[in-house]
Design goal:
single chain; Serine Protease, Human Cytomegalovirus Protease, Chain A; ten-stranded mixed sheet
Length: about 250
């Protein structure tokens, strides 16, 4: 049987893995840099492309990265023109590919806001197929891949992976910049996201503490709840507008 998505040697491919935000304790604060621990790719798990990854498929690639003494880059949604950090420790265990990394300080507020708002849903690997086998049912099992990067993503197609912890993302009140980032991550233009963020803050009766430091500490629980409700409603409407689109 022919595979649904035939691999192409030498061409970069991507696989998304789902984050798990059921446990709020996964978000913590500590230090200057945001530290992330995650499960980047589970083994022997069929994804929406009818492909899976065999245990050991990353070993040669990880050894090559180590020999080059380079850090595997961290992106958001595979945007390789804007690295947000690096993965200092990437290893295989019996269940899959695990990664531990840091977000650079200049990107911490933006990425931290996406995590806090649960816009970022998981992790995704960028890789080049090297060796694979086609199973009798037409699915593909990768036996060797060249790992190129691991991204934090807003969509997922492979079940079973977890962003296990985020430390240093910030517990402070949301800023307009973070709300804008959440809206832009869902496809709004820069100008539209900015206008929408201002409206959400206004409707919640709040001021942006980053732009008005004198407002810091003046928010009450009701105001923060109104802000989150307004943002969640807007994100829901945006997702609803994309239902049925290719």
């Amino acid at each position: 049987m022919n595979p649904k998505y035939a691999p192409v040697a030498g061409v970069v491919a991507y696989r998304f893995v789902a984050g798990d935000f059921a446990n709020e304790s996964v978000v913590k604060t500590s230090g200057i840099l945001g530290k992330i621990d995650g499960f980047a790719c589970p083994f022997d798990t069929l994804d929406s492309h009818d492909t899976r990854f065999a245990q050991g498929c990353f070993i040669k690639s990880l050894a090559a990265w180590k020999r080059r003494e380079r850090t595997l880059p961290m992106y958001v949604n595979h945007a390789d023109n804007r690295p947000v950090g690096g993965w200092q420790e990437v290893t295989e265990d019996d269940t899959g590919l695990r990664a531990r990394g840091e977000i650079v300080a200049t990107e911490r507020e933006w990425v931290g806001g996406l995590f806090r708002l649960k816009v970022v849903l998981g992790m995704s690997i960028g890789f080049v197929p090297v060796a694979w086998r086609v199973e009798t049912d037409g699915t593909v099992t990768y036996t060797e891949v060249a790992l190129r990067e691991i991204s934090l993503v807003t969509a997922n197609s492979v079940p079973g992976a977890v962003i296990e912890s985020l430390r240093g993302a910030g517990d402070q009140a949301l800023t307009i910049r973070q709300v804008e980032a959440a809206l832009r991550a869902q496809g709004q233009s820069c100008n539209a996201a900015k206008a929408q963020a201002i409206r959400i803050f206004r409707d919640a009766g709040l001021r942006d503490e980053a732009a008005a430091p004198e407002a810091a500490g003046l928010r009450d629980g009701a105001g923060e709840a109104a802000l989150m409700k307004g943002l969640e409603q807007q994100l829901f409407l945006m997702r609803l507008s994309h239902v049925g689109r290719p």
